[in-house]
Amino acid sequence: MLKKNQIEEAEITAMSSDGNGIAKIDGMVVFVPYTAVGDKLKIRIVKVQKNYSFGIIEEILEPSPDRVDDHCPVYKKCGGCAFRHISYEAELRHKAEFVQSNLRRLGGLDPVMLPITPSPLVQGYRNKAQYPIREYDGKIEAGFFAKRSHRVISCASCDLQPAFFEQILEYTKQFLEEYHISAYDEQTGKGKVRHLYIRYGEVSGEVMVCLVVNSERLPHAAEYVEGLLKVCPQVVSVVLNINREQNNVILGQKCITLYGKDTIEDTLCDVRFELSPLSFYQVNRQAAEKLYRLAAEMAQFEGNELLIDLYCGAGTIGLSMTSNVRELIGVEIVPDAVENAKENAKRCGVENARFICADAKEAAAQLAAENLHPDVIVVDPPRKGCDLEVLQAISAMAPKRLVMISCNSASLARDCKELEALGYHLEKAAPVDLFPRTTHVETVVLLSKGEIDSKKVRVEFSLEDMDMSGFQKGATYEQIKTYVLEHSGLKVSSLYISQVKRKCGLDVGQNYNLSKKEDAKVPQCPPEKERAIRDALKFFHLI
Questions:
Q1: Are 100 and 165 in contact (CB under 8 A)?
Q2: Among 80, 120, 124, 427, which lies 20 to 30 A Cα-Cα from 47?
Q3: Is 259:225 a contact under the CB 8 Å cutoff?
Q4: What is residue 489's predicted lDDT score, i.e. its pLDDT?
């Protein structure tokens, strides 16, 4: 049994999803932060639980090939980054493993896993920062929360953000101290300024500065704006956000513009967006473009689909897909975000989109009343995932394909498991790294609606009279299946291949899909799989 302060030698053999290395000592799992797979260490045990323990590095005996030097002075204090001590290649490998493990372990799911998509930028990729403002010993501090606490670690310069964010932060701290404006106290609920919120339009170059305050006004607001414009001429919007609630939520619902515009502009997937402080927008624009294009590929649009974008926010995902669909209906429960989405559609000249302010259940009822049935639903839920009612609403709308984007593979696994019970099949999953150096990773998955419920319908067919000679001309069944899987990520059955070959005029026997029972139902090959099989047949020169 391990004991506190005991020192043992061990090798890190795996990585946990929260970024801790894993070693085994005397059969017990030991979690060790800031380690890399392959590290050989002396480990000091600092906490012993019944089934696992925690340790810290006492000495690195032999460093892992994955190790790199980190240059952040607050890395081990700040709760933001977890992988600054390993190479980006190693980080991507671990993140792909986390996603696959969660889908298998938590969801019992085994989809085709596509390679992880790296972020184009590893440093300076964030277009948004939210700094908590606090006062310690009479001095204003701002930065980021320490790991698993609300103690502010002062950090003006963060490698994940544009360099000019530091200038805005330092000026704001000086302003608050000069004019003796108090910082918010979480314990008492008193104090004026809670957060500094900076938003940057990478394409437009526009900057929004938002102060989250515990009142309706900011003393010396004119002086703040005047000084801010000198520090950062790119600022086109200065906003007060009012949050008087004594909770951990950063933003309130009311905004007051102190200077310039109410919004800033940015461009994503060739679509221009106006962003308010309350608008959802991906913090890594370049990686988000890769994510949304991958989602569009999974949706397999042919141009005549009705697309529903659930949790649409300012419409970023859905509007990026409108050129590929007949109609887009965006659903969002936040009224300001819906108005942003409508304005964004209007500004971009999108005429085949409308937006509903409702939750998923209400939207499903409204669409049913209009006798509308979506072909594809794209859903990008919050980190907690979807409530069961939302998943049931999705199932009630019965889209042929469901593309889900998630920032939490654990809740994603749970939701996909529920959707499989509702008649959907998880076909493939692809991790996309939008948050380099952190533990967070996005995942986009494709779920398809089965043509029949295999639990309720007995399927019979005979292969006895099937002419197999045709399969030997250019490719076997297995070769076709392999080709389809590698080039489309889809799994196809021999039955589906037979059906497509028959449609193409290839001889596969007369009774390949017939049953001795007259009323037996035979599953028919879905359109997306038929297209993939046809491509394989062309490749093997069968058609």
A1: no
A2: 80
A3: yes
A4: 67
Tell me if 135 sits within 8 A of 191, measured CB to CB: yes
Give yes or no for a contact between 319 and 271, defined as CB atoms under 8 angstroms apart. Answer: yes
Q: Would the pLDDT of 458 be above 70?
A: no
Rounded to whole angstroms, the Cα distance separating 374 from 221 reads 49
* Active-site residue, selected from the candidate residues 386, 407, 416, 525: 407
CA–CA distance, 101 with 91 (Å, rounded to integer): 15
> One-letter amino acid identity for 115?
P
- 378-397 in b/e burial notation, b at 16+ Cβ within 10 A? bbbbeeebbeeebbbbbbeb
Strands 264-268 and 442-449: unpaired
Q: What is the DSSP letter of 324?
A: G
* In the block, residue with structure tokens 């099989």: 533
Task: Supply the CATH classification number for the domain 128-268.
Answer: 2.40.50.1070
Asked if residue 520 lies in contact with residue 452, where contact means CB atoms within 8 angstroms, the answer is no
What amino acid occupies position 274?
E
Q: What is the pLDDT of residues 91-112, one digit of tens each?
A: 999 999 999 999 999 999 999 9
Token pair in block for residue 333: 């429960």
pLDDT in the model for residue 539? 66
Token pair belonging to 504? 């193409």
The interaxial angle of helices 164-178 and 221-231, nearest 10 deg, is 150
Active site residue 416: no
Of 184, 181, 185, the residue nearest 172 (C-alpha): 181
**Number of CB atoms found within 10 A of residue 189's CB:** 12
Q: For residue 289, what are the contacts with CB-CB under 8 A and spacing of at least 6?
A: 268, 269
CATH annotation of 1-67: 2.40.50.140
- The string of pLDDT tens digits covering residues 137-175 is 889 999 898 887 888 888 878 999 999 999 999 999 999
Non-local CB neighbours of 213 within 8 Å, separated by 6+ positions: 192, 193, 194, 240, 241, 242, 243
pTM of this prediction exceeds 0.85? no
In DSSP notation, 371-434 reads T---SEEEE---TT---HHHHHHHHHH--SEEEEEES-HHHHHHHHHHHHHTTEEEEEEEEE-S
Query: What φ, ψ does residue 173 adopt, rounded to 5°?
Result: -60, -45
If DSSP codes are grouped into helix, strand and coil, which group holds residue 44? strand
Q: Taking 50 as the threshold, does the pLDDT of residue 467 lie above it?
A: no
